[in-house]
Amino acid sequence: QGMSNDIWTEKTKGTLRRTLSAPQGAAAFLAGKIGAGVVIMAAATLFALAFSIVAFDVSLTRVPLALVWSSFAGAAILCYLIALQLLASSARGGQLLSTMVIFPLIMIGGSFFPFETMPAWMAGIGRWTPNGLAVMKVKEILFGAPDAAGILLAAVGIGVPAVAAFYLSVRRIRGAFATN
Fold this sequence. Notes:
The chain is an all-alpha fold. The protein has 8 helices and no strands. The longest helix has 32 residues. The radius of gyration is 18 Å and the shape is globular. The two termini are 23 Å apart.
């Protein structure tokens, strides 16, 4: 969430307008922000995976796919959060909007409480949230029998809306967001 707030810092300090005047444009700027976010998330994921190897006896052979999956899911969720930030009319509004969306998703999506401890109806809903899909697949990769078709389907379920959020963000940056 903090990385998605950076877009407002860029706007309020005037660097967004200057960046958008460069030949690369809004899509390259946004892709760079998301790329930087992925690097930070991958580093945090590596730390968590190293801990899981020691604490939970996770096989080293499962780590590369878990790292790729977690980085992909993190990039997708960052795309969603940036789009939410860009829909708001102020930095505070963007932070409030993203908080109002992310905290219920974290609660029901298996990030705070495991699906196994939730009531069945709640876990059923949570498994279909973007972070719920991500959590289920990373558990499957680390502790279960991951299947390529299931991972691909989850990647489409998380990735297609992320691509839509990315293009919405590019349009919004090119439009009223940068000029207001």
